[in-house]
Amino acid sequence: MNGRNTMHWSFLATALILLLPACSSQTPDVPVAFTPRDPPPQLVEQILARERQLVAGYQPNEQLRPLVEAFSRFNVLAADRKTPRQKLEQSYEHLRILADKALQQAGREEFHKLVLYLLERFDRALERFTKQADAASIEAWQAGRQQFSGPLQQAYQELLASGSDFLPTALQAGLLRPGGQGLSFAPAGRFFIRLAFKVRFASLLTDLGHALDWLLDPRERQWYAIWVAERSRSASPARKLQAVQRLSQLDPHYPTITARGIIHFQAGRYDAAQADFEEVLRKNPGDKKLQSWLRQARQAAKRQQSAGKSSRTRQP
Fold it and tell me: How far apart are CA 209 and CA 202, in angstroms?
């Protein structure tokens, strides 16, 4: 098992929040950061319509129902921080075994429908919760002053069973926004939520092989790479750079060197960022934003070098 965090939605919280780097006080006007991007609404609608058509009228057969029940039990246990680790690991192992067996017996096409069925169940639970929630209850719950009650508590329990501890991370990431009437989705929020559900499912069940290759639409895989490269706070610089390389293969117009420079800068590799920005500026010498980023990289590299010299001087 890849650690307890894999069982939760911490991936979502870290992946969907734009990383804003610390900028030099001398050049605060153009932060070295990616501009947040959302998929085109038409793409979102196409993927949603296709998935709902595939799963329309679908119900898991007797072979697959135990997996559905195990997934629900695991979600509830994983959402409760008081769950003993051994109990959680046993639940996870049971889920993993059932999933591997279901894939072998049902085949990839049927298993894909099952994942979409679970996704739709989660989506409906989320929809019910957002319609019943009010801003005051959400605020009090976030502050730890009170728990949900009545119909809202029932809706929350359904959300836990279908998607585990999703709500706090979705609120933190800004995918769900409290408002006057309750909760609403951010632009493209539902797309990223559904994408994250499939990524979480695949990360839980690593025995399924490269599940993301067949659980995600090719266009979703591209947006997942954008997500990792440009917006993740949890991915290592190496993983981000791998995603950039993947994007350069998928899209010949992707600004690979600029993206690489931003990642290097955010990772504190200022010399590498400087080299990247210099390379791009040789082709686009009039780009004011890149000029600002290059100045910041040079200044940060000098500070870093000075700090290193000072540290070596102080050593006995």
Answer: 9
Q: What are 243-286's pLDDT values in tens digits?
A: 999 999 999 999 999 999 999 999 999 999 999 999 999 999 99
Given a cut of 50, is residue 152 above it in pLDDT? yes
Contact at 8 Å (CB) between 263 and 239? no
Indicate the SS3 state at residue 139: helix
The 3-class SS string of 208-263 reads HCCCHHHHCCHHHHHHHHHHHHHHCCCCCHHHHHHHHHHHHHHCCCCCHHHHHHHH
In the chain, the amino acid numbered 10 is S
Distance CA 146, CA 142 (A): 9
Instruction: Give residue-wise pLDDT tens across range 160-196.
Output: 999 998 888 788 777 888 876 778 888 888 998 999 9
Evaluate if pTM is beyond 0.90: no
Closest CA to 163 of 60, 76, 68: 76
Q: What is the DSSP letter of 268?
A: T
Q: Which residue has the tokens 């169940």?
A: 121
Q: 137-155: buried (b, 16+ CB within 10 Å) or exposed (e) per residue?
A: bbeebeeeeeebeeebeeb
- In the chain, the N- to C-terminal Cα span, in Å, equals 45
3-state secondary structure of 206: helix
Average pLDDT over residues 208-219: 82
Position 51 pLDDT exceeds 90: yes
Cβ(97)–Cβ(122) below 8 Å:
no
